[in-house]
Amino acid sequence: MQTLPKERRYETLSYLPPLSDAQINRQIQYILEQGYFPAIEFNETSEPTEIYWTMWKLPLFNARSTQEVLNEIQACRSQYPSCFIRVVGFDNIKQCQILSFIVHKPNQGGYRY
Prior knowledge:
The chain is of the alpha+beta class. The protein is about 25% helix and about 25% strand. It has helices at about 20-35, 65-80; strands at about 35-45, 55, 85-90, 95-105. Strand 3 and strand 4 form a beta hairpin. Belongs to the RuBisCO small chain family.
């Protein structure tokens, strides 16, 4: 039996390899299909004690396509290239965050958006 190498784990889906562009697109599509509101957040670190991230603009209440969300991710990444960036999905009925996943890690490849 082999154990996982010791490394930092981030958010939902953190035990999987980095998401491809198509997988990121599909996760955002899932958020929209479920009626959740996507939002983009960024932070300089991803330490477990850092529970509050800075929100990039307001949640994307009127987003109807994945491309709208991807454009905002790219804008955030352009302005804050040295920060971790994640997408979160908010449920307006339960009034809480349902899911989140990292779409950009600074100084690491594997994420285009």
